[in-house]
Please model this.
Amino acid sequence: MPESEALHAEHHLEYPYSRSVGPVIGAFLTGLRDGKLFGVTGAGGTVIVPPTEYDPTTGDDTGEMVEVGPGGVVESWAWVSHPLRKHPLQTPFAWALIRLDGADTAMLHVVDAGGPDKLATGDRVTVKYRPASERIGAMADIEAFVPEGGAGA
Amino acid sequence: MSAAARTPRPVSIASFAQMQNVRKDDEHNEVEMLMPVIAEVFGNIGITKDDVDFICSGSTDYLIGGPFSFVMALDAVGVWPPRSESHVEMDGAWALYEAWVLLQEGEIDAALVYSFGRSSLGDLNEILSLQLDPYYLAPMWPDTVSLAALQARALIDAGKATEADFAAIAARSRKDALSNPKAQVANDIPAETLLEDEYVVSPLRRHALPPITDGAAAIVLAAGDKARQWSDKPVWITGFDHRIETHSLGARDLTSSPSTTRAAEVAGLADGPVDVAEIHAPYAHQEIIIREALGLDETVPINPSGGPLAANPLMSAGLIRIGEAAASIKSGKAKRAVAHATSGPCLQQNLVCVLEGE
Model:
């Protein structure tokens, strides 16, 4: 047994890399900055969102960028009553896998739905961007998805 | 597609040891945590470090918060004169796989595998976000519990499970853990009571989550004459494989585990019945997915050790499944067993190890 309490100290570890995002992810993030959502065509004509340089299922090269959304369907969701300090929203929200109109895969983002009783799998949601002046070409350019027809509908 | 197309060199689990799993061990550094485990895994069969030809470990720098932490951990073994050594930034189950592959080449006959990790040092929800896609996922800091909750909801929506099923798995696991002295969370609380828990992230309640665990584990592998020297009745690895799925979460069917199914095919799991399964399903609902992916019927006992719901030492919980499965055979409770390990969000990567006694 210890003779005294263990000493504790804060230790911050960071990996402050900057990355070049390439032609496909770069096009998607640039699209967000411009207020548009893009996918990419994959094997068999599927549309992959968010887009990657390779088809996530087959590994084949992907093709052309195609515009998708701005609405979509909630495929699954998880309700966060107590947001963590780094979460995109600091009020209760849902993480959701959202299949955007025109897409064959789902994208993870947050849904500002108002409450867990106001969201269900299969619900339609639509993108809510930050003001254009605040957008930088990152996932955070989307403030949240909101129920189609108005929050808390 | 033929199952078990390869006939692997027989390799035995000659010895297994694990630390007492605890919520927080801040009295020992990683070397001090490992030393008694290494001493036990060698002591069980009366050998020393000089009897193994290769050492492979599994751990992650992200827990300790410093680079190359596995190099320091080697001091727990004492590697002078220099030893052939390797490391994976993965659960020790994958370190075991690397050692097994090396043993297949036939040039060496014994290896030490160990793993360690203190989950208590940082915030796991933040740390585990860093294993995700760095462009589309990690910048939003989706926590590991929330991602598991998305998977649980998909399972419920697909009609494959209910919240009561999750509670039943949690209740059974922690009751079984009462007979495992190394378990961290062991109790006998009925599922109906557990269902009164608050949601952590809906639809997951507290009981469906793994505990936060500091721990370490080790296994000695032996082939050839050493397998016979170190055991009267060796426990053999008869099939071993691992597979991975895309890191694009939304491109997967989260209610199934095709990588587990494929690994089980290659490992020859279906070649015979199994008497016990040790499944590395940190979240209760994931046991349902893996049980189905492995093709196990309701008669096969799952996780008599309590499994990861009773102790989930990051980087060791998978290796411990293999050790516990081997222990079930060694004790005579099972003739043939399967162990599973997982890595990544929502069961992204899966390993299947089939074990048989004589």
